[in-house]
Structure formats: structure tokens, C-alpha cells
Specification:
By secondary structure, this protein is an alpha+beta fold. Helix content is 42%, strand content 20%. It contains 39 helices and 38 strands. The strands form 7 sheets. Strands 16, 17, 18, 22, 23, 24, 25, 26, 27, 28 and 29 form an 11-stranded mixed β-sheet that branches. Strands 14-36-35-34-15-30-33-32-31 form a 9-stranded mixed β-sheet, with helices on both faces. Strand 20 and strand 21 form a beta hairpin. Helix 15 packs across helix 16, helix 19 runs antiparallel to helix 20 and helix 34 packs antiparallel against helix 35. It is elongated. It is an enzyme of class 7 (translocase). Component of a P4-ATPase flippase complex which consists of a catalytic alpha subunit ATP11B and an accessory beta subunit TMEM30A. Belongs to the cation transport ATPase (P-type) (TC 3.A.3) family. Type IV subfamily. Its main location: other.
Length: 1132
């Protein structure tokens, strides 16, 4: 009874056992003892907040920031005790910071909600009450029968019941789940495959029992019990029966399936990580610096309190004649008075902690993120996609990346295979205009390859056309509105469309069709080809499936003449050892040549059987296939027995088309000191081939392998062998290949050994990876002792986990849906854009925000240290040095705009130089500009300048510090725009103008005016102006000398490269220097127009003709490298 109450009250988790029972069409037993299991609904949630938890959760996250929590405490202290300053001075800035940040984060999460609603609100069809009903995806329940049509994605994990095919099969592509674009065949059980209408499905009585939700994409264990004529028939269900959410139906008109796992319990969702708040290294450094400054603040407050009581030990100072104590003050507790004085000093000095730092940082990140979207170098014209920023909190992290973890399929490649060359009987051929042309001849040669192919050439093409698992659809592809990514895996011609379980097979069958041997039909056991217009029918006797151990596949066919023939194709190492005839050595050389060109190679062979041999082969296969024990081992023995004594026919070379400039991008990342790992769910051979062709692995690199490890001991021994090899051959570069199974063993018991091997390898390739394994690899390096900054980039749902796990996640707007883009921090259209994103934008963002952080601490030290020194001259009476208006406006008006504009437009080096010299990225790596040494320099500089301000002013006249703060920033600025000039000198001018108006006029709404006419009187003195100039020179001159000294004697690579920017190039406007759209329209033209209206400037710089501006190189049509050249007004 208690158990029932808990379940109904929602106390217990919904799953009470290791299995779940699902009644198809939710036809539950009618007895009164059955209690339905509770399952998750079908909603997908990638957002972080809800309308109910937004305020408490956001406030909790914001008050984790030390400065926010500190100012909250200060605000409460000001409310509780009598302090020198008003509570408004702390409360108002804190409220502003919290509000602005909450609005920004709320908006970003609203975008995630919007994307989730699109997915959850997608229309689907389910069978209910005897009819097909349209509903929303989020309304699907476990047990519902769902109909999915061709090219639609599955809205939940479904067990296949039936399809429009008589045999109940269907074809799907799981590109968005495991990165494989190949077609996979799924099967229904015979008892349900006949239910192809809604009425038949409504009458179906069936129960599915299966395991509870599991993140493993490749594992499903269950069974279905079908009741027919009061007889229960039990059939097993495996992975081949489960249609995963996110996969897409191909080459099948429609299917019906029962929902097994829904919503966040689907395998795709279980491979997502919870979206956590990512915090950049700069923000962590800021918190560390804030703790140090908090220590300085406490030290100053305690010292001031102690000195106050030491000073007041004398009666004449404790109770002077002009400030007699009240009776209550004389009788108050000394301890409470000490605490009160300490808190009062704490409030007096609290401005040493810069709360406005967070506001400025938030504004800098938010405004700065627009430059990524405005950058035309990151715009992909073919797909009309520009770079997208989903979170601006990590801009500076782009400049700190040390490891890049990238997906392969769709990220490095285009998912397109093209036949390039082949070797037939020792002769190399290439395809030219639909003809096979021997090496050394052109297609016009009379002796070239004519359509009348004979002998080995024709047999080779027939083998290619018949030895595969390609499926044919005779439907015309739907009109998809010119989507450039549509039907990437299909081939359409003459009302016929090819789909393959391997991209290589599809490319080879298409090539054979173009040459003249076309695969036209596959029906049951009949395979039909058309050889130069002549139809030939073959009977498929046996299919010897591909597996990773054999690395080959075969078909046994009955020819039109009645003979039996075996066609085999596979990897060179898996086929050539079993060949006994043919041009073996020549073909081996050709295969090596193809591989050196980066082509994916396959070797093709055949074997003709006599009637007696075929009878023996058929006997072996039948015995192995019907074995109840050790079936897999017996099948392997049978396959090896059959696939021998082969006649070599030739080899093929297929190119997996890489994305543009992938090799150059990976090389640029290497030069920048960034290690690149490729994590893919693809097969070992495919992954290695692509790694070689894209430059991830070099031909001269020593490739180490950690593959197919079966036990912990074997894995450990192999790792030790690899470590020894690396130590023995430490001169050459090493690359490591590891598969998912071996990786699991390595991470379970031998994590340190595995990491040691990986650190000594220049490149690492992980294949056959499950999505969560990708995330585990990223987490392994994130949490390693060195704590490097990691970046993950991918394009499919299988990459979401690692994108969320990495410090920076980047989604590719590719062909595998938008799951990766929705869950990423940044999104780009092509992998090549990663170079500019890191080397230029990352570099700029980091140096800007690093200087911003250091400058804020510097200027607050300059500002508040004179307040501390002033206490020595006022008997520590907690008298404030500054008027309250100046106290409020110092950070808001006098010093905030110059550093904000600096942090938006500063360019230490021209973008062109940063892209052409990736090594400059190393200068800012490992958070070098926010190291403790740099922080100490800025802090000591602030204290030195504060002492000069105070004692210089004390000796000569009186002075404020806003002049000095902006002067120091002017020294740090390398890239001056009109906006920098306007805010830097304008802030100083505003200080003078404001002081004149504030102190020169009697304002009736002010209770007191302590500064009345003080500033006017001060500036009327020539000696005051002289003192101002002397103090400024005294402060800045040592820093100028230091900069000149270091630049000439110990210049950094960045400083050396600054001279590469052409001094003759006219200065670009701040807008033009960062972004420009097509047709001469500036990416921030609205901002520019507004500023020009305010300042009264002339026409748009972007439209100015015959001036030097940034343009694309006309010679190479390369939009990824910026050039400077005079252009017309119609271009940008």
C-alpha cells in the first residue's frame, strides 16, 4: 500500500524494475490489478531555466561571483549602520549589474526555449481510436503507434512494426546520431509486418518487453509478444528493430512503429549532457584578483581601525573640544564600537573592488559578439549562412584554446564520395566524360577505352555493379526548394535513386552506371544489371556481410548462364593475401599510389565455383548460419574457407571530398600550438583515410594503434608497448589511432598511462566512438593536471555531448540537422572558418578583455588609495576625500567609456598578419596576459601613481585622478579610431566641463555644495595647471621608458609582427576594420550612420570610392584571407 501511495504521489522514480512493459496502442489489461508504469513525455528540453526557477536560479548563479556577493554584503552593512556613504552608492550599481546580466541570460535561454518549442511542436501522425490522428511531437506517449513518412525524422525511439514493403524492412540514415551517412536496413517481425493499414494496426494485440533507457546507441534488447487466435507468439527484438529518434527514414514510403523511449529518455537525449554554466578562464582570473583585492581592502580597513584607536589613546584626540561625545557614545560597548568603525572603513574603501567591472565586461562581450556575425570572412555564400553567437560569455576563451576535438563526417568532409581512378588487370584507368581512359591516353584517343569493354575490364565493372548492398528507389526526389544540402546521399537519374550502406559502394555503383554497366533492379533474390543496354539477371545465392575483423564483403551469384561466381571487395590487406592469380604486384603498387593521393581504396576479386565446390560452400554456410552455439565464430570460419583462391580483378580509388581548406586550417592550428583530435563514430579504415587526406596525419608520421583490445591486461600491455616505442623513436612524430572499445578499457583502469601516450603524440584519432565517449574524452583533458582549454566542433546530434562538455563548443551548420548548432556556443558554416575565429577574433577578444580587467583594478587602486592616505591627515575620522557626486561618476562617466571603446576596437596586430602568422597565437596562450606577474605589475603601478597623485597634489595643489587613468589607457592603445579619440579626450573634457557647472552654479535641489567655486578657483591659478602637467608626466614617463626598453631589447613575436602592417595604409574606420556586408553595406552601418549624424561627419566610409579599403582577393576568390586594395564603391 505504501509503495502504491509513493508511486502515485510521485515520490518514487518512474522505473521500478530493470525492464519496461509496453502495451502496443496502449491497450492495457482489463483486470483491476494492473498499475500502469509511468514514462517520460516526449518533450525535449535543452534550456536551462523555466519561468518559475529563473529568478532564484539566476540570482544564485550571479551571487556566486565574488564581486556581486561582496557588494550585497556592503549594501546590507550600509543599511544597518551609520556609514560615511549612502547605501545607494552600492545598491544602485549592484541592482543595475544584476538586472542587465539577468536580461542577457534570460534572452539567450528564451532562444533555446524557442528552438525546443519548434522541435516539440512538430506535427506527427499517431494511430488512436481506429484512425490516423495528427498531433504534436510532445504529445506522443510510450505505446503510441506512430506513422513516419519518407525523409521525415523519427520523433521518438520506435520499434518497427511494419512498412510499405512486403518484407517489413525500411532504410534509415543515422547521420545526426553517429555521423554515418550510410543507409542502414531495419527489420520488423513477420507477425507485425503484415499490419500495413490503420485498421490492422488497431486490431493488433501485442506487448513489448525491453530494457530501461540506455545511452548506448548500438544496444537494444527486447522481445515482442503477439497474440493471434488466442495464441501468444514471442519474437526477439534487437538493435535492427529500433528506430532511433533523430534518424531519418530513407527509400521507404512510410513505416509504423510503436514508441518505446520518449523525450529525455530517448537514446539521443541520454547522450546529451546537462547544459551547465560555462565560465571562461578570464572570469576565473577576475575572481582570483577580486579575492586578492578583498584581502587588501580588509587589511586597509583593519589597519585604519587600529590606527584610529591608537591615535585616540590620547584624550585630546579622543574627545576634542569641538566634537564632544554624547553620554550614549561614552557608555557604548568598545567591541561593538570597534566593529562599527571597522565596517565604516570597509564601506569607505569599498570602491577598491570594481563592481562596474562586471557591467563593462558584460557590455563588452555582448557588443563585441556582433563582430563575429558581421565578419564576411565567416559568411558562407553557397548556403547563405553567417556565423552565429549563441552565448557571448566565452568570447575571450576563443583566444586560449589548446586542444580542438573535431567530428569527422560533415565537419571535415562534405559527405560526398567521388570515383577517381581504378586499376584493372595491372593497368590504371581514370574516368573522363563517362569513359574509362587508360593512363597516358586522353578520351579522344582512337585506342582509348571504348564502350566495347571485354574480358577483365567488363568482369571488373560487373563485380563493382553486383558486389554491394545498394538499394534503389524509383521515386523522383521531392522538390526541396533548392536546399544545397538535400539528397546528399542519393543519386537521381532516369527516375532512379541509389542508396547505400556504404558511401564507397554508392560512389562505385554510380561510376559503373556512368561508364555503361548499370545496376537497375534488386528484387528479392534477383539482381539485374544493364551492360551497355543489354539486360542481365543474376540470382543472389548468399551475401557474406562486411565486418570489421574480415574488412571485406562478398556475394555469391548465379550467372545468366547458370554458373556460380563469388565477387569479393575489401581493404587491400584483407583481400590481396587470399589472391592466387592476376596482376598482384602491379595492383599493390597502384593501391599505394592511390593512398598517397588521399583516395579510399578497395580491392576487387572473384572466384568461379564448379558445381561440386559450390555444393561444399553452400553446406558450410548453411551449417554455420543455423548453428545455435558459437554462431559468429562458425560464420567467420565459413567465410574464410570460401574467400580464398581468389582471382584479382583490380582496385578502385574513391575520393571522400573534404571541405574546402581543411588541410590548411589544421596546419594553421598546429602552428598556433593547438593539438587537434578527431573523434568519429566511423569505421577505423575510413577514419584513418580521411585523417591522412586532410593532413591530420602526415605520411611521414609513425601511426600507433590501440585497437580491438578485449581485456584490461591486454590494453595495459599495448599502452606500455606504445609508450616504449614513443620513447625509442622520440625524434619522429607519432599519431595514435584508438577505437571506442579500447578507449573504454583505457579510461577505466589505465587513465594516466593513456594520457601519457596521447600527450606525446602529435595527432590522435578516435574511431567507433559513442556520443558519450566523445564527451568523456573531452572531460578527461579538461580535468587533467594541466587543465588546458578545450574546444569541440561538430555538426550532428552525436556531437552535442562533447560540444557541451568542452570549454568552447562550436556547431557546424551542415547537413545533419541543427541539434549541434542549437546546443553550441558558436556556430559556423564551414570548418575552415575556425582558423579566423580563433587566430583573429579569439586573439582580439582576449587582449581586449585582459587589458580591460587589469585597467579596472589599476584605476580603482589609483582612485581609492588616496582616500586611505587621507585618513592619516584627518585622524582616521572616516572623512571622505571625494565629494559623493565624484565618487559615483568616477566609474560611470569619467573612466568607463574609454576602456569600453578600447575593449571593442583595439587591434594589437592587423588581422591579415594574425592569419598569416598563426604562431602569434602562442603569445597569448595559457592566460599569459592575466598572469600573476602582470597583475602584480598593474597593481604596483596603481599604488605608485596613487602616491604620486596624493603627495604631488598635497605639496603642489589639489587634483583628481580621472586625468591620470585615461592617460594610462592612451599609452596602452595601439589601434586609434575616431571613436577612441572621442571618448578618451572627451571624458577628460567632460570632467572639466562637469566640474565647472557642478561647482560654479548654486543648485537649489542640493542640500550642500561643498565644491562650490572650488574648481573654478583652482583652474584660475597657473601653478595648478603646471602641477597637473608635472604630475601626469611624472606618472607616465617611467612607463613609456619601460615600454620602449622592452620593445627594443626583448620584443615579443607580436611586437615584431606589428611592423608588418603597412604604415602607408590609410587608417580604416572602427566599423570598416572589423566587418562589412555585401554591396558596400557596412555590417554595423546603422551604428556608423547614427554616430555620423551625432558628429556631423560626411558620407559613409563604406561607400567611399577610390580609397583603400578591405576587400576580397580577386585573384583566388578566397574570402578567408583579408587583403587591402583600392576598390570601387559597389564593393566592400
Amino acid at each position: 500500500m505504501l509503495r502504491w501511495d509513493k508511486t502515485n504521489l510521485g515520490v518514487d522514480p518512474p522505473h521500478q524494475s530493470d525492464t519496461r512493459t509496453i502495451y502496443v496502442a496502449n491497450r492495457f489489461p482489463q483486470n483491476g490489478h494492473y498499475v500502469p508504469q509511468r514514462f517520460a513525455d516526449n518533450r525535449i528540453i535543452s534550456s536551462k531555466y523555466t519561468i518559475w526557477n529563473f529568478v532564484p536560479k539566476n540570482l544564485f548563479e550571479q551571487f556566486r561571483r565574488i564581486a556581486n556577493f561582496y557588494f550585497l554584503i556592503i549594501f546590507l552593512v550600509q543599511l544597518m549602520i551609520d556609514t560615511p556613504t549612502s547605501p545607494v552608492t552600492s545598491g544602485l550599481p549592484l541592482f543595475f549589474v544584476i538586472t542587465v546580466t539577468a536580461i542577457k541570460q534570460g534572452y539567450e535561454d528564451w532562444l533555446r526555449h524557442k528552438a525546443d518549442n519548434e522541435v516539440n511542436g512538430a506535427p506527427v501522425f499517431v494511430v488512436r481510436s481506429g484512425s490516423l490522428v495528427q498531433t504534436r511531437s510532445k504529445n506522443i506517449r510510450v505505446g503510441d503507434i506512430v506513422r513516419v513518412a519518407k525523409d521525415e525524422t523519427f520523433p521518438a525511439d520506435l520499434a518497427l512494426l511494419s512498412s510499405d514493403r512486403a518484407d517489413g524492412t525500411c532504410h534509415i540514415t543515422t547521420a545526426s546520431l553517429d555521423g554515418e551517412t550510410n543507409l542502414k536496413t531495419h527489420y520488423s517481425v513477420a507477425e507485425t509486418s503484415v499490419c500495413q493499414s490503420v485498421s490492422q494496426l488497431e486490431a493488433l494485440q501485442a506487448v513489448v518487453e525491453c530494457q530501461q533507457p540506455d545511452a548506448d546507441l548500438y544496444r537494444f534488447v527486447g522481445r515482442i509478444t503477439v497474440t493471434q487466435d488466442e495464441e501468444e507468439i514471442v519474437r526477439p527484438l534487437g538493435q535492427e528493430s529500433l528506430l532511433l529518434r533523430g534518424a531519418r527514414l530513407k527509400n521507404t514510403k512510410e513505416i509504423f512503429g510503436v514508441a518505446i523511449y520518449t523525450g529525455m529518455e530517448s537514446k539521443m537525449a541520454l547522450n546529451y549532457k546537462c547544459k551547465s554554466q560555462k565560465r571562461s578562464a578570464v572570469e576565473k582570473s577576475m575572481n582570483t584578483f577580486l579575492i586578492i583585492y578583498l584581502g587588501i581592502l580588509l587589511f586597509e580597513a583593519i589597519l585604519s581601525t587600529i590606527l584610529k584607536y591608537a591615535w585616540q589613546a590620547e584624550n585630546k584626540w579622543d574627545e576634542p573640544f569641538y566634537n564632544q561625545k554624547t553620554e550614549q557614545e561614552r557608555n557604548s560597548s568598545p567591541i561593538l564600537k570597534f566593529i562599527s568603525d571597522f565596517l565604516a572603513f570597509l564601506v569607505l574603501y569599498n570602491f577598491i573592488i570594481p563592481i562596474s567591472l562586471y557591467v563593462t565586461v558584460e557590455m563588452q562581450k555582448f557588443l563585441g559578439s556582433f563582430f563575429i556575425g558581421w565578419d564576411l570572412d565567416l559568411y558562407h555564400e553557397e548556403s547563405d549562412q553567417k556565423a552565429q553567437v549563441n552565448t557571448s560569455d566565452l568570447n575571450e576563451e576563443l583566444g586560449q584554446v589548446e586542444y580542438v576535438f573535431t567530428d569527422k563526417t560533415g565537419t571535415l568532409t562534405e559527405n560526398e564520395m567521388h570515383f577517381r581512378e581504378c586499376s584493372i588487370n595491372g593497368v590504371k584507368y581514370r574516368e573522363v566524360n563517362g569513359k574509362l581512359v587508360p593512363e597516358g591516353m586522353n578520351d579522344d584517343s582512337p585506342d582509348g577505352c571504348t564502350p566495347q569493354l571485354i574480358g577483365e575490364e567488363l568482369l571488373f565493372l560487373k563485380a563493382v555493379s553486383l558486389c554491394h548492398t545498394v538499394q534503389i528507389s524509383y521515386d523522383q526526389p521531392d522538390d526541396l526548394g533548392g536546399d544545397p544540402f538535400s539528397h546528399a546521399n542519393g543519386f537521381s537519374s532516369n527516375n532512379m535513386e541509389y542508396y547505400a550502406s556504404s558511401p564507397d559502394e554508392k560512389a562505385l555503383v554510380e561510376a559503373a552506371k556512368r561508364i555503361g554497366v548499370a545496376f537497375t533492379r534488386c528484387s528479392g533474390e534477383t539482381m539485374e544489371i544493364r551492360t551497355f543496354g543489354k539486360s542481365e539477371k543474376y540470382k543472389l545465392l548468399h551475401l557474406l556481410e562486411f565486418d570489421a575483423d574480415r574488412r571485406r564483403m562478398s556475394v555469391i551469384l548465379q550467372t545468366p548462364s547458370g554458373g556460380k561466381v563469388l565477387f569479393t571487395k575489401g581493404a587491400e590487406s584483407a583481400v590481396l593475401p587470399f589472391t592466387t592469380s592476376g596482376e598482384i604486384e602491379k595492383t599493390r603498387l597502384h593501391v599505394d599510389e592511390f593512398a598517397l593521393k588521399g583516395l579510399r581504396t578497395l580491392v576487387v576479386a572473384c572466384r568461379h565455383f564448379s558445381p561440386e565446390e559450390y555444393a561444399d560452400v553452400d553446406k558450410h554456410l548453411s551449417a554455420a548460419r543455423t548453428a545455435l552455439q558459437q554462431r559468429e565464430e562458425k560464420l567467420q570460419e565459413a567465410f574464410n574457407y570460401i574467400e580464398r583462391d581468389l582471382q584479382l580483378l583490380g582496385a578502385t580509388g574513391v575520393e571522400d571530398k573534404l571541405q574546402d581548406k581543411v588541410q590548411e586550417t589544421i596546419e594553421a592550428l598546429r602552428l598556433a600550438g593547438i593539438k587537434v583530435w578527431v573523434l568519429t563514430g566511423d569505421k577505423h579504415e575510413t577514419a584513418v583515410s580521411v585523417s591522412l587526406s586532410c593532413g591530420h596525419f602526415h605520411r611521414t608520421m609513425n601511426i600507433l594503434e590501440l585497437l580491438q583490445q578485449r581485456s584490461d591486461n591486454d590494453c595495459a600491455e599495448q599502452l606500455r608497448r606504445l609508450a616504449r616505442r614513443i620513447n625509442e623513436d622520440h625524434v619522429i612524430q607519432h599519431g595514435l589511432v584508438v577505437d571506442g572499445a579500447s578507449l573504454s578499457l583505457a579510461l577505466r583502469e589505465h587513465e594516466k598511462l593513456f594520457m601519457e601516450v596521447c600527450k606525446n603524440c602529435s595527432a590522435v584519432l578516435c574511431c567507433r566512438m559513442a556520443p558519450l565517449q566523445k564527451a568523456k574524452v573531452v572531460r578527461l583533458w579538461k580535468t587533467s593536471p594541466e587543465k588546458p582549454i578545450t574546444l569541440a566542433i561538430g555538426d550532428g546530434a552525436n556531437d552535442v555531448s562533447m560540444i557541451q562538455e568542452a570549454h568552447v563548443g562550436i556547431g557546424i551548420m551542415g547537413k545533419e540537422g541543427r541539434q549541434a548548432v542549437r546546443n553550441s556556443d558558436y556556430a559556423i558554416a564551414r570548418f575552415k572558418f575556425l582558423a579566423k575565429l580563433l587566430l583573429v577574433h579569439g586573439h582580439f577578444y582576449y587582449i581586449r578583455i585582459a587589458t580591460l580587467v587589469q585597467y579596472f583594478f589599476y584605476k580603482n587602486v589609483c582612485f581609492i588609495t588616496p582616500q586611505f592616505l587621507y585618513q592619516f591627515f584627518c585622524l582616521f575620522s572616516q572623512q571622505t576625500l571625494y565629494d559623493s557626486v565624484y565618487l559615483t561618476l568616477y566609474n560611470i562617466c569619467f573612466t568607463s567609456l574609454p576602456i569600453l571603446v578600447y575593449s571593442l576596437f583595439e587591434q594589437l596586430v592587423h588581422p591579415h598578419v594574425l592569419q598569416n602568422k598563426p604562431g602569434l597565437y602562442r603569445d597569448i596562450s595559457k592566460n599569459s596576459l592575466l598572469s600573476f606577474r602582470t597583475f602584480l605589475y598593474w597593481t604596483l603601478l596603481g599604488f605608485c601613481h596613487a602616491f604620486i597623485f596624493f603627495f604631488g597634489s598635497y605639496i603642489l595643489m589639489g587634483e583628481d585622478t580621472s586625468l591620470m587613468g585615461n592617460g594610462q589607457l592612451a599609452l596602452e592603445t595601439h589601434f586609434w579610431t575616431w571613436m577612441n579619440h572621442f571618448v578618451t579626450w572627451g571624458s577628460i573634457a567632460f570632467y572639466f566641463i562637469f566640474s565647472l557647472f557642478y561647482g560654479g552654479i548654486i543648485w537649489p535641489f542640493l542640500h550642500t555644495q561643498d565644491m562650490y567655486f572650488v574648481f573654478v578657483q583652482l583652474l584660475s591659478s597657473g601653478s595648478a595647471w603646471f602641477a597637473i602637467i608635472i604630475i601626469i608626466i611624472t606618472c607616465l614617463f617611467p612607463d613609456v621608458v619601460k615600454k620602449v626598453f622592452y620593445r627594443h631589447l626583448q620584443p615579443t613575436s607580436t611586437q615584431k609582427s606589428q611592423s608588418l602592417s603597412s604604415p602607408q595604409t590609410p587608417t580604416l574606420s572602427c566599423v570598416e576594420s572589423l566587418c562589412c556586408y555585401q554591396h558596400g553595406q557596412s555590417g554595423c552601418s546603422r551604428l556608423a550612420s547614427l554616430l555620423e549624424q551625432v558628429t556631423g561627419a560626411g558620407g559613409s566610409h563604406c561607400h567611399a570610392s577610390s580609397r583603400s579599403n578591405r576587400s576580397w582577393s580577386d585573384t583566388e576568390n578566397d574570402r578567408s584571407i583579408l587583403t587591402l586594395s583600392p576598390i570601387e564603391s559597389t564593393h566592400c
